[in-house]
Amino acid sequence: MRGRLVHVGSAVVDYVYRIDALPAAGTEKTATSYARVAGGGFNMMVAASRTGMKVVFGGQLGTGPDGDFLRAAFAAEGIETLTPPSPSMDSGNCVAMISGDAERTFVSWPGAESQLTPAVMAPVTIMAGDWVFTSGYTLSYPDSRDVLADWIEALPAGIPLVFDPTPVIADIPRPILNRVLARTTWLSCNTNEAAEIAGPGDAQTVAIRLLAEHCPRGDGVVIRAGAHGCLVRIADGGTRAVPGFEVEAVDTNGAGDTHIGAFVSGLSRGMPPCEAARYANAAAALSVTRHGGSSAPTHEETQEFLTQHDQATTAHGREEATAT
To answer: What is the DSSP code (8-state) at residue 226?
Structure first.
C-alpha cells in the first residue's frame, strides 16, 4: 500500500480578481470577475489527491471565516487535517489579480499558517512509506521557520522530503534554507528560484550545482520552465529536458503547484523520474486551460491527455513519412 503525502506547508484563501491589465499606480480597474477559492498549498494537495495519493495536511488552519472556508474545501477533496486549529487567529489570505495574458500578481496576508509551534506539530506523525512536502512560504514566516526546520531535520532517514522554495525564497534566511536543502530528497523549483539558490547559468549547469553543492542527500532536482516543460537532473549524473505541451492557457495560477503534486504522485506509484516529470507536465498543461488555482486534473484526465497527444504525434509522423 502506498504511503501518504504529508503536506507541512500552508493553505490560505485566495481572493481572485480578473482584470484586462494591471492598473497603473494611482489608478483603478474594475474586475471582470471575482472568486473566493482555497489556495496556497491547497492547490498542490489537490493535484496529488486527484492523481491518486492519499493526502493529509500537517500545517495549521485558523478559527474564523477563512479557516472555516478552508476546512470545507479540504473536506470536499477528502484531505484530513492532522493539527488543531489556531484558537486565536484566522487563516491567511491572498489577493490574486489575473490579467488578460493569463499572468498573475499576488498580495498576501499571513494568518494561522504562519504560527507553527512544537505543540502544533506534535500530532503530525510520519509512517513508513509516507512522502513529506513543504514550501518556502512556511519557511519565510519568522514564527514558523525554526520549528519547521527542526521538525524536518528530525524526520526518519528513509522518508523522502519534497521541497518547493516558491517565489518568496529571498525572504528565507540562508541558514534555514540550507538546513532544509540538506535534507531534501527532491527539489522542485522554477528557473528564477534555482538561480537564487545556486547562482546564474544555463539550466543544466544550475541543476548540477543544486545537487552537488546544496542537496547532498537529494535523489534529483526538477527545474520547471512553464510551457516549455522542465529539466530533470538525477543524482547519478543523468540530465534530461522533458518538453511541455502546447495548449491555450487561460489561467496559469496554480500550474507550478499542479506540476509538483502530480510529480510526487507519479513518483509514489513507482514512475521513473522523467516519466513522472512528463506526467506532471501534462497535468500542469491541463490545469492552465481551466480557471482557478485548484484546477488540477484527475489521473484519468491526465492519462487521456497523454494518450491523445501520443496518438496525434504518431499520426503526424506517419503523414510526414507518407509525404516523403
So the answer is: G
Grid cell of 195 as nine digits:
538561480
Cβ partners under 8 Å of residue 276, min gap 6: 262, 263, 266, 267
Cβ atoms of 35 and 253 within 8 Å: the answer is no
Average pLDDT over residues 140-159: 96
Eight-state DSSP code of residue 27: -
Q: What Å distances lie between residue 57 and 11, 125, 299, CA to CA?
A: 9, 11, 21
CA distances from 65 to 12, 68, 86, 96, 218 (A): 12, 5, 13, 19, 40
Domain ranges of the chain: 4-21+33-314
Contact between 258 and 283 under an 8 Å Cβ cutoff? The reply is yes
Evaluate whether 228 touches 250 at the Cβ level (below 8 Å): no
Residue 82 grid coordinates? 492532522
| Residue 151 grid coordinates | 521538525
DSSP 247-288: ---S--TTHHHHHHHHHHHHHHTT--HHHHHHHHHHHHHHHT
Distances (CA, A) of 324 to 295, 311, 314: 42, 20, 16
Question: pLDDT digits over 305-317, tens only?
Answer: 999 998 887 766 6
**The residue type at 39:** G
Tens of pLDDT along 95-135? 988 888 767 788 989 999 999 999 999 999 999 999 999 99
pLDDT value of residue 24: 87
**Pairing outcome for strands 229-234 and 239-243:** antiparallel
CATH architecture of the domain with residue range 4-21+33-314 = 3-Layer(aba) Sandwich (3.40)
pLDDT for the residue numbered 209: 96
Q: Which of 188, 182, 183 is nearest to 220 (CA)?
A: 188
- 305 sits in the region (left: phi over 0; alpha: psi -120 to 50; else beta) called alpha
pLDDT digits over 242-274, tens only? 999 999 988 787 899 999 999 999 999 999 999
